[in-house]
Amino acid sequence: MQTALADFIRNSRAGSEADAILRSCVHCGFCLPACPTYQLLGDELDSPRGRIYLVKQLLEGEPVSARTQLHLDRCLTCRACESACPSGVRYGRLIDIGRALIEERVPRPLPARARRYLLRKIVPYRPRVRLLLKLAAAVRPLIPAAPAHPSPTLGPQRPPAWPPARHARRVVLLEGCVQPDLAPRINPAAAQVLDRIGISTVRVAAAGCCGALAHHLSAHEQSRAEARRNVDALWPHIEAGAEAVVFAASACAAMVCDYGQLLSDDPAYAARAARVSALARDIGQLLAAQAGALRTALGEAGPAPPPVLPLRVAFHAPCTLQHALRASGVIEPMLQAAGYTLTTVADGGRCCGSAGTYSLLQPQLARRLLRAKVSALEADAPQLIATANIGCLTHLRNGTALPVCHWVELIASRLDGG
Ligand code: SF4
Ligand code: SF4
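That is the input. Now the predicted structure with iron/sulfur cluster docked in place:
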């Protein structure tokens, strides 16, 4: 693609990067069938190729409007287009640059600004999330439209105990901002599975949100500050020999994998951020690399009790696992090795509509994607749905009567003989 960047951006770092990305796109359109918003809306401007063109216009100094912003907002940043693109176009990075620029150029109406501000100021902070959840529970009975019986959770409500650090091999786990309160059993379940294969998991108290939420809202200074805080919190553990930085939420893993790029222009943090990114793993990636040890632990756990297994499980692979971390297909063999029967799920590469804050900011599109995803997941008569990211998990729970859990809870349950 030919480009002629405007003076305001031409010689900047973001400009050079965006220019290289734009030039790598050959307009072939192979990405269009992979794009959920193009599939739903049928408008070229809601496709990857159309949005690339809109960002090009923006960078070339052509007029942009609220309409341009809407088409960029409607993108889920699911990056399915990147997986489909034969030319290796780094669409995710380009849309980040485009969104940050349009945020400066096109002022949003006050209610939209307030909504985005509140999301940035509440969701990344655990005490605020906890307070909000308490308030939501208190007012739920007063809201007629609120589901009276949300999708049931699985097993005991109390989180399992965090195993003591007894192994020489250690990893650090970033707990995330919303996960410990929305689904408190996931992180301890991950630590228990790692403990059973000889790896201790250390929680990092001083860490917080990975920065993904602010990043998706184009608040890049906030996300960079959150990344720096986490690098500072993780560094002593890395120096002490932690072999990986692990996450039981694939979106957080994907974000931290980008810290190196995010802080590459910060001399005080660039090297350490790159090291943190190199060590960042989703729990699925980490366990898949230890498949032999996991099989041994499952073998030692003995045969599963017949009334419980084989349990039919529909697995939803989050976009961050498939398209950002490029770790498709690593989790399913582990579930099968643990005795679960995986059901067939059509169109497995398609986003469920959660996509960070998308379900809150684009609720109608998110609901349509949720309906399509749930019907694909339920088609082969599963008994429960498993996924690998807290955002997908909570979003899916709003669309199904089946239990929805994190897949690592199923492995932990099986290791416990359940
Ligand atoms: S598939 Fe890649 S090269 Fe082709 S239009 Fe889409 S982004 Fe451009
Ligand atoms: S990131 Fe997802 S929604 Fe956005 S253009 Fe690519 S495929 Fe479409």
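Residues 24 and 89 are 6 Å apart (CA to CA).
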